[in-house]
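anyone seen this seq b4? input:
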Amino acid sequence: MSTLDHNEPDDEKFLASHGPKPDDIDASTGFERSDASVTGIAVFLVSLLIFVAVVGMLCYGIGKVINAHMNKEDGPNSKWTKTVDVRQLGNMPSSPELQNKVAEITQTFPTPRLLTDDGDQDVADLHAREDLLLNNYSWVDQSKGTVRIPIEWAMQLIAQRGLPVAPAVQTQRPRQLMTGESAPTITVPLTNGFARTSYEQEQAEQEAVRQQEGAQK
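predicted toks r here
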């Protein structure tokens, strides 16, 4: 079924009846004089300039209001809040002495300090110091003659002599358990909370491989 409206006139007939006649067109000027309206362009430019001026004045007013509010809360600008052009100061010259001084100062900062090694070297150094104290003799108080012995020997002495028995402490009468309540039990932990890091384990494996290769040679 056709969707054309037969009541609508044809384009050629419409142009012929409503458009200009070929004899009425003046082609002596060589261009169409009615392309653009100078008045319309002038009105558009003037309106654009007025709009830009109004927006600029509005932004300036908002900025003045914001600055006045900030000065009211923070106080007026002083020599401590004066804006300084840092480009006039130039770059700080590199000085090895200054860098060494900064390094010495950073070493005196209280611990814990920021870690600079991603391989957990600081943790490995801590464990090495702990192993040094646990596996060797060291003074506890030289003036009193007390010495710290290796942990392996200490464990053997404890296994032979046993631990000193503390005197019995009179405890309060345990409270009566309520219905559905059970007495708490204390269990021995399955670990002492100390474990080598992956970095230390890798270092130990590499050291074992080097020792094995040296033994084979």
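The longest strand covers residues 138-141. Strands lie at 138-141, 146-148. kinda curious what u guys think
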